[in-house]
Amino acid sequence: MANIIAASTSTVFGSGHLEYLHEELKPFFKEADEIIFIPFARPSGISYDDYTEKVSQSFSKIGKRVKGLHTFENPKQALMNAEGIFTGGGNTFVLLDQLYKLNLINDLKQSILNGTPYLGTSAGSNICGLTIGTSNDMPIVYPPSFKAMGLFSFNINPHYLDPISGNTHMGETRETRISEFHKFNPQPVIGLREGSWIEVDGEDINLRGNLQARLFKQGQRAVEIESNSDLSSIK
Amino acid sequence: MANIIAASTSTVFGSGHLEYLHEELKPFFKEADEIIFIPFARPSGISYDDYTEKVSQSFSKIGKRVKGLHTFENPKQALMNAEGIFTGGGNTFVLLDQLYKLNLINDLKQSILNGTPYLGTSAGSNICGLTIGTSNDMPIVYPPSFKAMGLFSFNINPHYLDPISGNTHMGETRETRISEFHKFNPQPVIGLREGSWIEVDGEDINLRGNLQARLFKQGQRAVEIESNSDLSSIK
Predict the structure, then answer these.
(1) Recorded E.C. number(s) (chains A, B) (predicted)?
(2) Looking at the complex, does the CB of residue A173 fall below 8 Å from at least one CB of chain B?
(3) Overall number of domains in chain B
(4) H-helix or E-strand spanning residue B54
(5) Nearest CA of chain A to the CA of B1: how many Å?
(6) Does the distance separating the beta carbons of B145 and A139 come in below 8 Å?
(7) What ipTM was estimated for this complex?
């Protein structure tokens, strides 16, 4: 019964925060007046209050109020009673660590499985996968586990980047990194380019946005998947 | 009494493996006929044997034999008796995890502190810092800790990359990532560009190579440091 939008990024180049998703978010959050915002990923180390204020301004454009999860006396109850939930991007390790520290990861998952519409961007999408093992982020804190919510039977690699031709930098390409991941982990990985998202509507899981995504499976060549493809059989 | 070369990368663009370091490595390893190679970081998931063979070819050009640490019945003793040690790049999480699993991290550190010349490149340099919290790698395995050898009073960010002007990708720049690191961690970080290395000779710690490095300190603006600068007071 889940309703999820797991997006590669909050912001595409040349557009405001969440702006490219506004038309999607109106019907997605139609039953919600207030969105509970999880600010734990703290991009650039922004404070929870400042991050919530930023997101609040963005959601006001589609007529929604926003309340930071950190302001609730009982955050477990807040998640369970939420009309809609948004987890913003930032650092995936910091986000997951805080969810574990506050013992909220199962409540968040349960609320989503109960049908609460959930929007994640970047780090907030990463935690929908089986693990955060395909995050691009710097490991600036040590979470008690890399296990994430497992709402999908695969991992997500947000901000997926194609190799840049003519690049002289010797660091690994994203594709090489994901191929290394598959030496140690069996689950498929979906490389979501900026502007793409995964939409879950009940049992249906589809790729949305105008772009292709890149699907990596252990022991197989990576393939491109078209927008609007059915992802429900990927495991 | 340590002798360390901790390099940003094994390979600079347009040159063979370790080639740009050959003239440094001859005097550095002058007492060593055989180098013990730690292949655990497995770039692109290469096997220990294949990685050791590659490194062996590279060291043969300066007249050294190479033996993989994985081939010793008693790897602790091998580290303690080594004439020289090289840890190659790949995935830092995989490298550190394996060092912990085999309970070798303290032996490696002790051997280095006893004066065994140690060369690290990329992941092999990362583990010389206080933690691997400024690695660029994908967290494809979960090590029991991010704590590294602490041979320096700072962290290293290898393959340091300056922001690319005109880039439309919305992922964080390296500088932003390191600034997020400093929201949670106090130690300085040295961003080592490809072609730079840190040389430890007894009590002396210096930046080597032709390039500047970038020094990040908590709560301060990042600064450029010149080649041949003394790094021993950075903590």
Answers:
(1) 3.4.13.21
(2) no
(3) 1
(4) helix B48-60
(5) 30
(6) no
(7) 0.93
